[in-house]
Amino acid sequence: MPSRAGAAPRDGLRVLVHLNNLALGGAQINAVDIARTLRGRGHHPVLFAQGVDGPAPLVDRAAAHGLDLVVAGGPDTPHRAVRARLERLARDHGSDLVHAWEVRAARNAYFGPGRFGRLPVLTTFYGVRMLRGMPRHQPLVLGLGALTAEGRAFGHRDLHLVEPPVDTGADAPGAVDGAAFRAAHGIGADEHLLVIVTRLVPDLGKDAGAELTVEAVRLLADPRVRLAVVGEGPSRGRLRAAAAAANAGLGREAVLVPGQMPDPRTAYAAADVVLGMGSSALRGLAHGKPVVVHGAGGYTAVHEPGPLAEEHASRCMYGLGTGAPSAAALAAQVRGLLDDPGRRARLSAWGREWVVGRFSLESVTTAFEGLYRAALADPPGLAGWLRDAEQMARYEYLKPAGLRLLRRG
Q: How far apart are CA 140 and CA 122, in angstroms?
């Protein structure tokens, strides 16, 4: 633990931020961005995460912002050891409260520094479907308004909605030069570039959306259309195979899979159209790009003013389809955008304004500051902590098979 974290004056909140993991996923990036914004406001955040086998790109991202990040053990380190390290960090840091991101972090905080109500714990859950295993009487922040009713049905009694943030200063038209990305990948200025920035994982249908877009490009069969899928993950091999098949059928390199970029802003800036979900779709809008939203069950839709925009917002730029993916429908949506420059320009201007007004990092950080102060004003104490003890113990000690049954219940 760097000494400066423990030596900071007590003129701001001291927040211990427990990250879900060390991958460049939306929730982790959100956590780091909120932490650096808090620090800029005079608070003193410190980040904590369990170690992983292999690359941990979030370590470099935190270091680039000058944030303190403590990594404990590895993926197989026992919970007890991870929680003991988390408790020591809370003492060394003089933490006022713990901000846990996602389920595992919530449980570590509950049984670690939050045990017996010693420190208030606030959990943020930015998933698209509710999961069990989080305390029901501690503050729970959801990123999707559509999950509020489900959260109440799961027994949560202190729910708040804070939609995921976008750094609308760093993610902005003209903030970076998209020409560099095009040049690096041989994409001409006269070509239409579709961009997806995502973690290539089966979760939430992210890999399915990317593969559906590859098929849509094949159906378009337009020599001016290129697709770049930026990202890494276990599904990358399958996506590369789909890209190779599409390229062979079209007789050209229509689909690129360049891998992960620590800073993908040049890819967003280079795009004519961005496709994706969640924070990635929001970042595309922040860069002033028209966006096609992906989702489960083959869902795709152009993000545009009207009821659909509010539906997308309620699900954090995610949709629910019928279960019958249609590459032809997606190809038609893309074709409609590419053939109408005026429509693209209108959606670009509107999308940027919509994001700045609703999802800016500054406004989201202000919302969390208010929640932190409310938690400190009404700490749980032993009695509050014990209200969740029975149900948390069930999730802690049941075997994985039992947990799966509970999640179905």
A: 6
